[in-house]
Write a structure and sequence with these properties.
- By secondary structure, this protein is mainly β.
- It has one domain (2-213).
- It has helices at residues 13-20, 104-115; strands at residues 2-5, 9-10, 35-43, 51-59, 64-72, 83-89, 93-99, 123-127, 130-134, 139-142, 157-161, 164-169, 172-177, 179-180, 194-199, 202-213.
- The longest helix has 12 residues, at 104-115.
- The radius of gyration is 16 Å and the shape is globular.
Length: 214
């Protein structure tokens, strides 16, 4: 379960992403002069320290972008090149926002959900009047079924290849779709474990990520 606080971020998430996205190599020909949120989902950090959120955004020309980020309460050592920005959270204070593909907590969470057949995290929001559960409007699911735990990630690397980011982490390789082909046919991926998702404006499952194991 992901626990959120009813709070204000300064600058806001969309302001941070609007400034960062147009400069990314995976953007392709998408017109990112303006983006708007169409969906989003979270994964759990088992240690409860890192916020893991993936934004689904529509560009000015109607393309769908997938932007996973992590939120941390202190800088991640050796990850300066992955910082998107910092923001001030009205409850939690200063937060460091990272491109999640450079964060080992996200990498492990994504691999676990895909390979073990998991889903998005349930979200509870803490308000002035108590805690309440948010209904998920974006739903994702992994196609795997293994019940074996993944080993801790000692090291990993990633590279941007066209409209995807490929993460190599020892026993597995993850491909994160940055520009979503919402009309893609699921069967072309064969038996490759994958993450599929739907969001309010798109009810047919779309490919979000692939996981290949060695």
């Amino acid at each position: 379960m992901a626990l959120l606080y009813q709070a204000t971020l300064t600058p806001s998430k969309i302001e941070l992403l609007q400034s960062w996205i147009p400069h990314q190599p995976w953007i392709g020909d998408a017109d990112a002069t303006k983006v708007e949120v169409v969906g989003g989902y979270r994964f759990d950090d088992p240690d409860g320290e890192v916020g893991i959120e993936t934004h689904l955004l529509q560009t000015a020309d109607g393309q769908i972008l997938q932007v996973p980020v992590t939120y941390r309460g202190s800088p991640m050592t050796g990850a300066e090149s992955f910082v998107i920005a910092t923001t001030q959270h009205s409850v939690l204070g200063k937060r460091w926002v990272y491109d999640a593909c450079g964060d080992p907590v996200y990498v492990r969470a994504l691999a676990t959900v895909i390979l073990r057949g998991g889903t998005q995290a349930e979200i509870d929001v803490v308000t002035d009047t108590g805690q309440k559960r948010l209904e998920a409007t974006t739903r994702v699911s992994g196609s795997g079924s293994s019940q074996s735990a993944l080993a801790p990630i000692a090291s990993f690397s990633f590279s941007n290849e066209g409209a995807t980011t490929v993460i190599s982490a020892g026993q597995f390789e993850l491909t994160v779709e940055r520009v979503i082909d919402a009309a893609g046919e699921e069967e072309v991926y064969g038996d490759t474990p994958r993450l599929m998702g739907t969001w309010p404006s798109h009810t047919a499952p779309a490919l979000l990520a692939l996981a290949r194991t060695s």
